Amino acid sequence: MKIAMIGTGYVGLVSGACFSDFGHDVVCVDKDAGKIEALNAGRMPIYEPGLDSLVAKNVAAGRLSFTTDLAPAVAGADAVFIAVGTPSRRGDGHADLSYVFGAAEELAATLDHDCVIVTKSTVPVGTGDEVERILREGAPGRSHSVASNPEFLREGAAIGDFKRPDRIVIGAEDAHGESVLREVYRPLFLNEAPILVTRRRTAEMIKYAANAFLATKITFINEIADLCEAVGAEVQDVARGIGLDNRIGAKFLHAGPGYGGSCFPKDTLALLKTAQDNEVPLRLVEATVQANDLRKRAMGRKIIAAMGGNARGKTVALLGLTFKPNTDDMRDSPSLAIVQTLLDAGARVTAYDPEGMEIAAPMMPEVEMKASAYAAAEGADAVAIITEWDAFRALDLARLGGSMADKLLVDLRNIYRRDEVLRHGFRHIAIGTRAE
């Protein structure tokens, strides 16, 4: 099939590359000429493991191409996916749908044949209706099908998630839209990926409900971790104990400094705005958003408390800046609030991240970026693990502590065993466990 993908951000680029790897003919379109130029030169605008080789393979095979010109990209397309950004709108927190609607207007003026238009972007309920209205009014002689096909990709594992999905959700209002999307995903038949076909509004709601539930699960275990610290319990054992219950499951029960990234923060906020507009209170989601926001600065205060309550003039080395490992994404990363809390307290902050420092540096200009974890720790009064990169799981603790001013390790991801840290002479502070 011929597919056009509008947008070469995280979702559009990964989806386009994977669709082409299925054997489809895919053209990715973006107005950012610099991004298209980079992609045509083989340079990826994001860090995602395996993406560069996947793109190169399919470009070489002639199945994947990039352009700024919409008209030839959509000519003869069986399906056009809209995968543009939907950031939180400045001022009110609603999802900014201007890019989605702008793409629909351009498609109405450009498409010369009936086509299936698919919203891949995360959009509030009812967005597909508005896209359909724009297409109908902009191209009154056409009979376009408008469908919803939300993505469920984890940054750092997106290619695997796309090719081995838990489920494929198709929100269609007509048989043609459903049949085209079933054909698009037919290569996954052998993987027995379940396909759930719903109405369009239901598919849009599924995406927001899924992210809100996962965000709530993360926030729940983080609050349980705080209680564990107060009563002398161990949160990792608690998480295992409840995660073994099949009704609960073990995923997303890892206590940490709070969630961030491109999805959970903006999607929970957009869901709340939709609920408010419809006068339906979502108290659990409200509490989740508030608790997560408060937790990030609280983690900065936790580091300060571990240093005796006074960070002025002291050096804190942060290991990891991105919101999660295997990505360079700094959007709503807990490190942003943690850094500001430490700077407000008068601390000097050094940092190392395997992939995120180029993006992080202009966001935190007062932080000294270092070439390695060991360079960041040199002369530090405390080292705090913010992101659980694999590179931090087997640090040479003797070397790390050997150059520190004070051997204090604050493990905000619980990736080290207490006995191992203590054996190397560190004081150890973890999440949801008693201090040692």
UniProtKB/TrEMBL annotation:
EC numbers, comma separated: 1.1.1.22
SUPFAM superfamilies recorded for this chain?
Answer: 6-phosphogluconate dehydrogenase C-terminal domain-like (SSF48179), NAD(P)-binding Rossmann-fold domains (SSF51735), UDP-glucose/GDP-mannose dehydrogenase C-terminal domain (SSF52413)
What PROSITE patterns does the annotation carry?
PROKAR_LIPOPROTEIN
Give UniProt keywords alphabetically.
NAD, Oxidoreductase
As one GO molecular function, the record gives:
UDP-glucose 6-dehydrogenase activity
- Listed binding positions for substrate are 152-155, 207, 252-256, 260, 324
Annotated metabolic or biological route of this protein: Nucleotide-sugar biosynthesis; UDP-alpha-D-glucuronate biosynthesis; UDP-alpha-D-glucuronate from UDP-alpha-D-glucose: step 1/1
Report residues binding NAD(+): 30, 35, 86, 122, 155, 266, 331
Give residue ranges for domain UDP-glucose/GDP-mannose dehydrogenase C-terminal.
317-418
Q: Which InterPro entries match?
A: 6-PGluconate_DH-like_C_sf, NAD(P)-bd_dom_sf, UDP-Glc/GDP-Man, UDP-Glc/GDP-Man_DH_C, UDP-Glc/GDP-Man_DH_C_sf, UDP-Glc/GDP-Man_DH_dimer, UDP-Glc/GDP-Man_DH_N, UDPglc_DH_bac
Q: Which reaction does it catalyse?
A: UDP-alpha-D-glucose + 2 NAD(+) + H2O = UDP-alpha-D-glucuronate + 2 NADH + 3 H(+)
Q: Which residues form the active site?
A: 263
Gene Ontology BP terms: polysaccharide biosynthetic process
The UniProt similarity line reads: Belongs to the UDP-glucose/GDP-mannose dehydrogenase family.
**What name does UniProt use for this protein?**
UDP-glucose 6-dehydrogenase
The organism named in the record is Sphingopyxis macrogoltabida
